[in-house]
């Protein structure tokens, strides 16, 4: 299954708008919930989605830190503005988890894992994704959580300086595949493919099955 992309993709700037970006200092001082066991979260997201460089993984965590839902997808490189990235995350959240807007306090939290070749540290694009994660979480009634990078050096939680050597960005190619029918090509990854696993309360879907590629985004 797949999610129609809610964005107009023409004419985006390659530089994130300053007001739609979060710098490393601001992110570190945002009083975000600390992952109880970051290694297990990274391991579980990697096991389910097997991301390769260029793939973004969005995870939804329960209060005890367990991964209960998520989606993995590829966003075209030309989309770098936090507003558009927020819309991408919000569309996927609506697809995999009911909103929590009627609750007095959020029950679930969100995390993003960015799989890429380099660098492991913060970039301007990470700043746009951080802004997007914060805003999408609020709009869906969830708590904004950690932002993690996954490179050939291993994984790193930005703003917390917690890291590990395994899994790595290339681990997907070395692991036996049992949860999906096939892996997307590393060289020819579809621009807007996605894989989602939903929690109870959303519409039924085959669990852990990769979505069919979306030929092109639909402008509204």
Would you give an account of this structure?
This protein has helices at residues 24-28, 38-49, 82-96, 124-139; strands spanning 56-61, 67-73, 109-115, 143-151, 154-157, 162-164, 194-197. It is globular. It has 4 helices and 7 strands. The protein has 220 residues and is α+β, with helices and mostly antiparallel strands. It has one domain (20-197): Cytidine Deaminase, domain 2. Residues 1-13, 176-193 and 201-220 have low confidence and may be disordered. Helix content is 22%, strand content 18%. It starts with 23 loop residues before the first helix and ends in a 23-residue tail after the last strand. It has a 7-stranded mixed beta sheet, sandwiched between helices.
What is the residue-averaged pLDDT?
79
Instruction: Briefly note the CATH topology name.
Output: Cytidine Deaminase, domain 2
Radius of gyration: 16 Å
Q: How would you sum up the major sheet?
A: 7 strands, mixed
**CATH level-four homologous superfamily name:** Cytidine Deaminase, domain 2
Short description:
This protein is an alpha+beta fold and 220 residues long.
List keywords for this structure.
about 220 residues; alpha+beta; Cytidine Deaminase, domain 2; seven-stranded mixed β-sheet; 4 helices; disordered N terminus; disordered C terminus
């Amino acid at each position: 299954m797949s999610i129609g992309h809610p964005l107009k993709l023409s004419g985006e700037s390659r530089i994130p708008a300053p007001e739609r970006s979060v710098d490393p200092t601001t992110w570190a001082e945002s009083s975000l919930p600390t992952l109880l066991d970051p290694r297990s979260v990274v391991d579980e997201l990697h096991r389910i989605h097997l991301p390769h460089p260029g793939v973004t993984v969005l995870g939804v965590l329960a209060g005890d830190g367990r991964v209960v839902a998520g989606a993995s997808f590829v966003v075209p490189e030309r989309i770098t503005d936090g507003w558009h990235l927020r819309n991408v995350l919000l569309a996927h959240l609506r697809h995999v988890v009911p909103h929590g807007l009627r609750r007095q306090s959020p029950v679930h939290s969100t995390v993003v894992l960015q799989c890429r070749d380099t660098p492991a540290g913060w970039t301007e694009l990470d700043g746009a994704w951080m802004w997007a994660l914060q805003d999408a979480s609020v709009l869906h009634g969830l708590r904004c959580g950690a932002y993690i990078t996954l490179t050939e050096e291993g994984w790193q939680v930005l703003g917390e300086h917690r890291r590990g050597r395994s899994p790595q960005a290339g681990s997907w190619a070395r692991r036996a595949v049992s949860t999906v029918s096939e892996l997307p090509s590393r060289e020819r990854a579809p621009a807007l493919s996605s894989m989602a696993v939903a929690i109870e309360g959303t519409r039924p879907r085959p669990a852990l099955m990769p979505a069919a590629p979306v030929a092109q985004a639909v402008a509204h």
